């Protein structure tokens, strides 16, 4: 049965994958099979499904968080009745089927598919909560499950117990251990990187730089530790492992998206008529997931192009779709095939917000910069200055070989209409709407998750109009 949303006409199915991309059963059933059956039956003339919407959450999403996010996003879409009425005009008999895709992206998160509350307790990063060996095993599973990685983690945890407070400089043994962890994390992905992911989303953390920034941010009362305030040597020393888990989750989004996500999308297309529209929307690392779902691997091909692709506060490279990534040797963006092979028939729409601290800070920090903050961002479309490493949620999609429109007015009000055209890319400066009141501001995340707004939903619906 689909998840129902009180107060709206919309509902959705939650399809969950495990860390290896295998679909998980709920109450002994595969939800994908239920969805396929619904779509197959809907080919009868009585009440056909006209459009399928697939959505992916991003980083820090376990099952309760995924349910909470999808409830909010889809409820926001359901409340935009004028947009639904327009879809009904454009698509007579409009009847959507919505799918929320879950992939485990929260280290030590709650993966109980029968979870009822988004507020369940998870395992803490606090080194006092578990024995050292348990923590080593937990961290190694998220970073690299090798003996070298485990020994490096053992060195870091031992040092964390020896220091009451963080020293002024990173101890040599901790620095060396961090270097080993970075190497092991990189090696664990190399065998699966035949198509050049690391060229686009590289890993080059500087342990000393991260540590010094950690100390500097502690004095500013800023949470650097991926959501945890720095209070001890343990917190400071563990930022490299935390950032590595961040990077690995980004890599997981790609792997599961281009295999399991792609296979699901293709299966859905195979049981539907060619008139059925397919619309994909991702948030944060979910933008990697849905882009990978559309792109697939080098030898895979969808039944037909999807009809729209919306990337909300995307935590993936701004160069992901271009013909030549700056500062690389003739390397195209990782998702370039989406453009060259016409895998999106309608518009590609992105959002940017200057209030999104996660994409501005954490994304480049876990990429090649290895520092917090990076350069200041100029949000004026008249004087763009784009870095080698940066997220779509800050800069939009950029680069050569693309038909890009930086929408003049940015994200529009509900009363205004977009003029999205097929085959074009639209970057929407959305700081006016993707924002949170100061009293609710998370210093590290900023407005990264503040996307359950009617104006954001209006843009998602409008992308479907433009297909």
Descriptive terms for the model:
467 residues, alpha/beta, nine-stranded mixed beta sheet, 10% strand
Q: Specify the number of helices.
A: 15
Structural class: alpha/beta
How do the strands line up in the largest sheet? 1-2-4-3-5-6-7-9-8
Order of helices and strands: EEHEHHEHHHHHHHEHEHEHHEEH
Taken from the alpha-carbon principal axes, the silhouette is: globular
Helix content: 25-40%
What is the radius of gyration?
A: 22 Å
**Proportion of β residues?**
5-15%
Oligomer: single chain
Main pleated sheet = 9 strands, mixed
Mean residue pLDDT: 83
Ranges where pLDDT stays below 50 over 5 or more residues in a row are: 116-129, 190-194, 218-230, 368-383
Q: How many strand elements? A: 9
Give a verbal description of the structure.
A hairpin with a 6-residue loop joins strand 1 and strand 2. A nine-stranded mixed sheet has the order 1-2-4-3-5-6-7-9-8, sandwiched between helices. The two termini are 29 Å apart. The model is unreliable at 116-129, 190-194, 218-230 and 368-383 (pLDDT under 50). It is globular and about 70 Å long. By secondary structure, the protein is of the alpha/beta class. The protein is built from 15 helices and nine strands.
Helix and strand topology:
Elements: E1 3-4, E2 11-16, H1 31-41, E3 51-56, H2 63-79, H3 81-90, E4 96-102, H4 132-143, H5 147-162, H6 172-190, H7 197-200, H8 207-219, H9 233-237, H10 239-270, E5 277-283, H11 286-295, E6 308-312, H12 336-340, E7 348-352, H13 357-365, H14 392-395, E8 404-406, E9 425-429, H15 454-465
Parallel strand pairs: 2-4, 3-4, 3-5, 5-6, 6-7, 7-9, 8-9
Antiparallel strand pairs: 1-2
Helix pairs in contact: 2-15, 3-15, 4-5, 5-6, 6-10, 10-11
């Amino acid at each position: 049965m689909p998840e129902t949303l009180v107060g709206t006409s919309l509902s959705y199915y939650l399809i969950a994958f495990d860390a290896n991309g295998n679909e998980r059963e709920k109450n002994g059933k595969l939800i994908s099979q239920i969805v396929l059956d619904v779509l197959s039956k809907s080919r009868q003339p009585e009440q056909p499904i006209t459009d399928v919407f697939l959505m992916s959450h991003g980083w820090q999403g376990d099952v309760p968080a995924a349910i909470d996010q999808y409830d909010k996003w889809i409820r926001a879409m359901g409340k935009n009745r004028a947009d639904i009425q327009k879809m009904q005009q454009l698509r007579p008999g409009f009847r959507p089927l919505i799918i929320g895709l879950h992939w485990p992206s929260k280290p030590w998160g709650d993966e109980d598919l029968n979870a009822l509350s988004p507020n369940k307790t998870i395992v803490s990063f606090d080194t006092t909560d578990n024995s050292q060996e348990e923590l080593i095993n937990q961290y190694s599973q998220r970073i690299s499950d090798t003996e070298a990685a485990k020994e490096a983690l053992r060195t870091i945890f031992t040092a964390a117990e020896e220091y009451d407070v963080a020293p002024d400089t990173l101890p040599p043994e901790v620095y060396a251990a961090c270097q080993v962890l970075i190497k092991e994390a990189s090696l664990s992905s190399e065998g699966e990187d035949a198509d050049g992911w690391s060229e686009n989303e590289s890993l080059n953390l500087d342990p000393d730089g991260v540590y010094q920034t950690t100390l500097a941010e502690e004095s500013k009362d800023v949470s650097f530790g991926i959501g945890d305030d720095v209070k001890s040597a343990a917190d400071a020393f563990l930022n490299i492992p935390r950032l590595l888990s961040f990077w690995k989750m980004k890599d997981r989004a790609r792997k599961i998206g281009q295999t399991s996500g792609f296979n699901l999308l293709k299966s859905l297309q195979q049981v539907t008529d060619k008139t059925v529209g397919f619309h994909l929307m991702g948030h944060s690392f979910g933008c990697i997931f849905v882009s990978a779902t559309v792109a697939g691997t080098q030898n895979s091909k969808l039944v037909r192009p999807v009809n729209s692709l919306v990337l909300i506060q995307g935590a993936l490279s701004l160069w992901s779709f271009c013909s030549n990534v700056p500062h690389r040797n003739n390397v195209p963006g990782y998702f370039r095939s989406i453009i060259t092979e016409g895998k999106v028939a309608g518009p590609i729409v992105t959002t940017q917000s200057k209030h999104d601290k996660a994409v501005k800070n954490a994304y480049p920090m876990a990429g090649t910069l290895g520092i917090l903050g990076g350069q200041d961002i100029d949000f004026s479309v008249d004087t763009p200055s784009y870095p080698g490493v940066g997220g779509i949620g800050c800069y939009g999609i950029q680069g050569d070989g693309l038909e890009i429109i930086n929408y003049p007015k940015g994200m529009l009000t509900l009363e205004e209409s977009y003029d999205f055209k097929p085959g074009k890319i639209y970057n929407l400066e959305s700081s006016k709407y993707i924002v949170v009141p100061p009293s609710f501001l998370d210093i590290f995340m900023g407005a990264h998750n503040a996307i359950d707004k009617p104006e954001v939903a209006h843009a998602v619906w409008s992308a479907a109009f433009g297909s």
